[in-house]
C-alpha cells in the first residue's frame, strides 16, 4: 500500500513538473514575453553602462516586434551614449513613426536636428509637442534654443523664461538660460543664472562645470579652475571636469599643470576608459606624438581588450608612420569584426599613407555610409581627394567635417591651406580665426592669419602674428620662414636669409624654408652655381628628403643641364615613388634629352599612380603627339576629360586633333569652346577655337580670335596660316596672300608650304 502511495505521489510530482515545463515553454514561445525579456535584459545592461550589449538585446526585441516603440526609443539612447548619432537619429525617427505621441522622442529628435544645424525642423518639433502639451518644459527649452539658432535672441530668451516659470526649481533651465544670455551678449545676467543653477542643485557637478566653461570663455582662468576643482570634488569618478580643467590650464599656458591633472585622472579613474585615455588623447591633441605613442603603447599593454584604446593606439601608430604595426593590429580587429567602422576607417588611412589614395577613397566612402556624422572620416576623405587633385571634392569634405565638429583643427587647417592655395583670402581668414578661437595657445592659426595679412600687404599685422606664433612654438620652423617672407617683401634680403637659415637649423628637412631661401638668392641675382651649391649643402644635412632632389632637378632643368636634372629627379622618385611633381618633370627631362620612349613610360607611370592628376594626362598626351601617336593622344585627352570635363588643355588638344584628322567639326567646336572658357588668356585656345570656326564656316569669328592670338604671338606660322585660310574662305584673297607670305617668311619649310605656294602662284596668274 505504501509503495502504491509512493508511486502515486511520484506520478503526481512528475505530472506537475511536466505541466510547469509546458507552461514555461508556451510562455517563452509567446512573442510578447520574449520581446519583454530582451527589453528587460537591455535595461539591466544599460544601467551598468554596457551600451553595446544593451543594443544587441534591443535589436533582438525589435526583430520580434518591429513596431516595439519602447525598444526603438531605448535603442536610440544606447546609440546616443556611444556617440553613434546617425543610429540614434534613425531610431528616434522609427519611434515617432510608431508612436507619434511619444513626446520625449520628439524632443530628443528635435535636439539632434538642432545639433545638425537644422534649426527650422527642430523648431517645428518643439511646436508639435507644445500644441499637444503646452506645459512641456523640455519643449519650451527646445523652442528657445531653436529660435536662438535662427537668430531670434529675444524670442529665445522669452521662451526660456516660460520654461523657468513652469519649473522654477529646475537647475538645468537656468544653465540653458545663461547660455542664451551669453549668446545675446548679456554677460552679467548669464553669470548670475549660472550661480542660481548651482544654488538649486548644490550636489551636482553639472552647474559648476557650466560656470567653469563660462569663465574660461571669458578668460577668467582662475575662477574657471575653482569651478572645475569643485566639480571634481562633487563627482570624483566623472572624467569630464578633469578633462575641462586640463583644457583651462592649457589655455592659460600652464601645460605642466594640465598634464599633472590628467596623470591624476589616470590613477583615480583606472577602471574608466574615458578617464585613463585622457592623458594620451591630450598628447595627440597638442601634437606631442612621441609621448602619445609611449602612452598608448602602455595603455594597450594594460587594457588589450579595450576597443577604444586599440582604436586610439592604431591612430597614433598611423600618425607615427609605423604602418606595419598599425596594419597588424587593425587586421586583427577586422578579422574579429569585419563590419567595424573604426577599423575600416583605419585601413583607409593606412592605404592613404602608403600612397594609395584611389584605393582609400571607396573605403572611406563605405565607412561614412555606415557613419555619416564622423567628422574625422570626412576630413580624411578630403585628404584622399586632395591627393588625387580633386580639390573641389576635398573642400566639400572638409567643410562637412567642420560643420559636424566645429573645433576639428586639422580640417580647419586644411581649409585654410586650400584657401591660401586658391587665393581665397576671406575663406582662409575665417578658418584662421576659428583655429585661434579653438586653440589660442597653438601657433597654427596665427601662421595662417599672418599669410592672409601679408598678401593684403598689411605687413605690420602679419609680423605681429608671426612673432606671436614664434613665442608659442619656438621650435617650429614655419613662423620663422613666414617672417622671412615678410622681410623679403620689404627687400630686407639679409634678414630674410637669416630667418630661413634659422628655420633650417631647427629642421634641416624643412623644404619650404630652402625654397624661400633660394628665391631670396634669385632676387639678389646670385649666380646659379651658388643656388645649386646651397641645395647640395642642404641635401648633405637631410639626405633622404625627396623634395630637395626635386628642387635640385628643377635648378639643373632651368640651366638646361638635362643630364644632371635627370639624375637628381630619379633620386627624388627613388626616395619617394609618389613624388608626382618629380615624375612629371622627369618625363619632361627625358623628352628634352631625346628619349621619348623613357619619357612616355614615366608619364604613363605618373598617370597610373595618380589617375586624377590632370597634369599627367596633359604631359602624356603631348608626348604621344610628339611621337606621332595621335590616336593614343586622343584617348589620353578623353580620359582626362572624364576626370574633369572642364580640363582646358585636354579639351583644346583633343579639339585640334579632331580637326586635323577628320573628326566631327561640331564636336571639336564644342571642345574648343570649353577650352577657351577654361583658358581665356591663352593664344593657343584662341587659335584652336578659330580653326574650329573656320571648319564650320564662321569666318568673322575666326578672324577676330586669330588677330587676338597674333597680338600675343606675332611670329607663329600656324596662327598666320589659319588666319590666311580664314581670309581665303571669306573671299579676301589679298589679305590671305599677305598672311601666307608671312608664313613662308617665318618658316620656309612649313608643313603646308607647297599648298601655300600653289595658292600664291594661282593668285598671281589670275
Which key terms come to mind for this protein?
766 residues; 45 helices; Serine Threonine Protein Phosphatase 5, Tetratricopeptide repeat; mainly alpha; disordered N terminus
Description:
The chain is mostly helical and 766 residues long. Among the domains are: 101 residues, Tetratricopeptide repeat domain (Serine Threonine Protein Phosphatase 5, Tetratricopeptide repeat), CATH 1.25.40.10; 52 residues, no CATH class. Helix content is 80%, strand content 0%. It has 45 helices and no strands. α23 packs antiparallel against α24.
Number of separate helices: 45
Overall pLDDT: 89
Radius of gyration: 35 Å
Strand residues, percent: under 5%
Dominant shape: elongated
Low-confidence stretches: 1-28
- Indicate the CATH topology of the domain at 611-711: Serine Threonine Protein Phosphatase 5, Tetratricopeptide repeat
Structural class by helix and strand composition = mainly alpha
Number of strands: 0
How much helicity do the residues have? over 70%
N-to-C terminal Cα separation, in Å? 148 Å
Largest sheet: none
Overview in brief:
The chain has 766 residues and is mainly alpha-helical.
How is this fold's topology laid out?
Blueprint (H helix, E strand, L loop, with lengths): L1 H28 L1 H17 L3 H14 L4 H13 L3 H14 L4 H13 L3 H14 L4 H13 L3 H14 L4 H13 L3 H14 L5 H12 L3 H14 L4 H13 L3 H14 L4 H4 L1 H8 L3 H14 L4 H13 L3 H14 L4 H13 L3 H14 L4 H13 L3 H14 L4 H13 L3 H14 L5 H12 L3 H14 L4 H13 L3 H14 L4 H13 L4 H14 L4 H13 L3 H14 L4 H13 L3 H14 L4 H13 L3 H14 L4 H13 L4 H14 L4 H14 L2 H14 L4 H13 L3 H14 L6 H13 L1
Helix pairs in contact: 2-3, 3-4, 4-5, 5-6, 6-7, 6-8, 7-8, 8-9, 8-10, 9-10, 10-11, 10-12, 11-12, 12-13, 13-14, 14-15, 17-18, 18-19, 19-20, 19-21, 20-21, 21-22, 22-23, 23-24, 24-25, 25-26, 25-27, 26-27, 27-28, 27-29, 28-29, 29-30, 29-31, 30-31, 31-32, 32-33, 33-34, 33-35, 34-35, 35-36, ...
